[in-house]
Amino acid sequence: MLYGLYWQDLLPWRELGSKTPPDPSAVSGDYIAExxxxxxxxxxxxxxxxxxxxxxxxxxxxxxxxxxxxCTGDQFERWADQDFDMESTTxxxxxxxxxxxxxxxxxxxxxxxxxxxxxxxxxxxxxxVLAMPVDPTVSN
Length: 140
Prior knowledge:
22% of the residues are buried. The chain has two helices and six strands, in the order αβββαβββ. The chain has helices at residues 7-10, 73-81; strands at 32-38, 43-50, 55-72, 93-106, 111-118, 125-134. Strands 1, 2, 3, 4, 5 and 6 form a six-stranded antiparallel sheet that branches. The two termini are 18 Å apart.
């Protein structure tokens, strides 16, 4: 179950340089699946509140190489406070200059996690995103 998707609350879309707010129809109760253009220089975080013992599955494909990193919400806020300096990023997972990636992050503690996509090009890059947080199993 998608416990909490709120990237538009953590860092408002206007601050990300986006011309339009996120489309709420792209979010279901269980996953995110969307295709969109990542504008030149745009930073696009997908933030989730995840439960301990859960998992976050994330896949992205893009029309040109982009950067991606996964961090906690606190790490993302510190990075944003440092004017999005990639050298100062502390990340759980980081991939630079890729066009396709899939990964699964096991959640060690209940926390806010961000998957951040960065377009360092001078042109828009089309991306396809599939994200699915998986809650831990509950025993009776």
